[in-house]
């Protein structure tokens, strides 16, 4: 993309309505525009990051054997009357009437609808295990939408649902989700810690929330500091291997880590030596639940087992806050000049800054860099505007591309361009070819 042809409405002023840094930076970098309280348009730069996050979630879900589909945003109220949640959900549910006065709602989550799909099409234990998921917009009429996309009313969520014959099979699905979530967040450059949590209106017994530590987080958390040393990394995992998935769950959840809802001060003191006890704030970026037959029983989602008996299936649901993740990533990765995108989610892989637009040699070098990066499968943003170098650098810093290549007539005389890391600020002079090769290498794990 050439910046002169792009739509990047950056703001000079710091917007006064934004209380936290991620919201401020998303507005300043021209990523989102608020259309009503907690409802946003995703401008091109924000939309690109949203799509990259979605892509990672899709890849990791499918690697775990989970199957994508797409359910609608609007749902008939009758489905929710079957589970008893139409009345129970309260004011957060946006209720709508169509022209025939039929009750609809904008889905805050999809347990009922997926259970309906399951009961209509599956009747034998031989079709299990099954995990279906989608990435779809949700609406919750939050009392206090705030912090930009972190607590919106309309927000994008990945929600997945497992259907299993037994408790043991359902717990394997739970563990698979935990592993796939650890991988997903790490690919986004985030550390998200699974913590024991309360289940809320979804219901159920076993549940973990994934929290990104950040001062601006809305949850209070208590944990053993050893937990922050754990990394899933690029180890191989066989998602069909029950023991292997179970071992990952144990590794990541055996140390004390709880949100304030389930925190138990006496257990914390008994289990964790004082010097390792931490209390902090965190952003919830996902949650996994096992809830057994809570929906399958009232809604008649049953299968015939190998003894010919009809039994309700064991279920769980598993969410990732796709749009909230943009805010969480920025909270975890920024400096006073702007955003610092992790390589896994950056909207463009590198910025090209032409120090002297209109200079024949500089223009030609930028054009050839631009094509060479694209030929390697990379997605560069070329700042080809007639602007001062300082202004170009400030824009690149604000929008947070991890790498910048600076091209100017003086360097070109010596056959070099400059490659700068947004994170460390360190620059290196090298030939244009070498810069392209370096970037291709850096991004190889992310393409
Ligand atoms: N209002 C919201 N805006 C943006 N993302 C949200 C919002 N509510 C929930 N999410 C995201 O969707 C994920 C799955 O939804 P879940 O039902 O677990 O939310 P929740 O526990 O009600 O969230 P919270 O406690 O923050 O209100 C959450 O982990 C979170 O990342
Ligand atoms: Mg939750």
Automatic annotation (TrEMBL):
Gene Ontology BP term (one): prolyl-tRNA aminoacylation
Pfam families hit by this protein: HGTP_anticodon, tRNA-synt_2b
GO cellular component, one term: cytosol
Name listed for the protein in its UniProt record: Proline--tRNA ligase
Catalysed reactions, as listed in the record: tRNA(Pro) + L-proline + ATP = L-prolyl-tRNA(Pro) + AMP + diphosphate
Quaternary structure and interacting proteins, as annotated: Homodimer.
Lipid metabolism listed as a keyword: no
Database matches in SUPFAM superfamilies: Class II aaRS ABD-related, Class II aaRS and biotin synthetases
First and last residue of the signal peptide: none
UniProt cross-references to InterPro entries, sorted A to Z: aa-tRNA-synt_IIb, aa-tRNA-synth_II, aa-tRNA-synth_II/BPL/LPL, Anticodon-bd, Anticodon-bd_dom_sf, Pro-tRNA-ligase_IIa, Pro-tRNA-synth_IIa_bac-type, Pro-tRNA_synthetase
Species of the source: Pararhodobacter marinus
Functional description taken from the UniProt entry: Catalyzes the attachment of proline to tRNA(Pro) in a two-step reaction: proline is first activated by ATP to form Pro-AMP and then transferred to the acceptor end of tRNA(Pro).
One of the record's GO molecular function terms: proline-tRNA ligase activity
Keywords: Aminoacyl-tRNA synthetase, ATP-binding, Cytoplasm, Ligase, Nucleotide-binding, Protein biosynthesis
Aminoacyl-transfer RNA synthetases class-II family profile domain mapped to chain residues: 38-342
Cellular localisation: Cytoplasm
Database matches in NCBIfam families: PRK12325.1, proS_fam_II
Entry EC no(s): 6.1.1.15
Family: Belongs to the class-II aminoacyl-tRNA synthetase family. ProS type 2 subfamily.
């Amino acid at each position: 993309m050439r910046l002169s042809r792009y739509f990047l409405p950056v703001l000079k002023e710091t917007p006064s309505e934004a209380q936290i840094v991620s919201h401020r930076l998303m507005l300043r970098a021209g990523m989102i525009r608020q259309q009503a309280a907690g409802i946003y348009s995703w401008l091109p730069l924000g939309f690109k990051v949203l799509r990259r996050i979605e892509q990672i979630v899709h890849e990791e879900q499918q690697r775990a054997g989970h199957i994508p589909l797409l359910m609608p945003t609007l749902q008939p109220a009758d489905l929710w009357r079957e589970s008893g949640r139409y009345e129970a959900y309260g004011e957060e549910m946006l209720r709508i009437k169509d022209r025939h006065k039929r009750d609809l709602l904008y889905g805050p989550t999809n347990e009922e609808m997926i259970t309906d799909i399951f009961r209509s099409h599956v009747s034998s234990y031989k079709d299990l295990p099954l995990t279906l998921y989608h990435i779809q917009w949700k609406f919750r009429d939050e009392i206090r939408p705030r912090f930009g996309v972190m607590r919106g009313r309309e927000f994008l969520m990945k929600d997945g649902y497992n259907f299993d014959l037994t408790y043991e099979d359902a717990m394997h699905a739970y563990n698979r989700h935990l592993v796939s979530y650890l991988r997903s967040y790490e690919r986004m450059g985030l550390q998200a810690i699974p913590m024991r949590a309360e289940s809320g209106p979804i219901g159920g017994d076993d549940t973990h929330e994934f929290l990104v530590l950040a001062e601006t987080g809305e949850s209070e958390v208590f944990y053993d500091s050893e937990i922050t040393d754990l990394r899933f990394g690029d180890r191989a995992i066989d998602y069909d291997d029950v023991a292997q998935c179970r071992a990952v769950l144990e590794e990541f959840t055996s140390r004390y880590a709880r949100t304030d809802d389930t925190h138990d001060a006496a257990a914390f003191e008994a289990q964790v030596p004082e010097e390792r006890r931490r209390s902090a704030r965190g952003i919830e970026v996902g949650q996994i639940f096992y809830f057994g037959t809570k929906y399958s029983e009232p809604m008649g989602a049953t299968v015939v087992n190998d003894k010919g008996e009809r039994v309700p299936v064991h279920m769980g649901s598993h969410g990732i806050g796709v749009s909230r993740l943009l805010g969480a990533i920025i909270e975890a990765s920024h400096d006073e000049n702007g955003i610092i995108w992790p390589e896994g989610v950056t909207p463009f892989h590198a910025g090209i800054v032409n120090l002297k637009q209109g200079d024949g040699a500089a223009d030609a070098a930028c054009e050839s860099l631009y094509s060479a990066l694209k030929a390697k499968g990379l997605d560069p943003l070329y700042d080809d505007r007639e602007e001062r170098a300082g202004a170009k650098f400030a824009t690149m810093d604000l929008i947070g591309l991890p790498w910048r290549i600076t091209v100017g007539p003086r360097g070109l005389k010596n056959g070099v361009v400059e490659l700068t890391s947004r994170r460390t600020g360190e620059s290196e002079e090298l030939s244009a070819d070498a810069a392209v090769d370096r970037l291709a290498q850096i991004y190889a794990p992310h393409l």
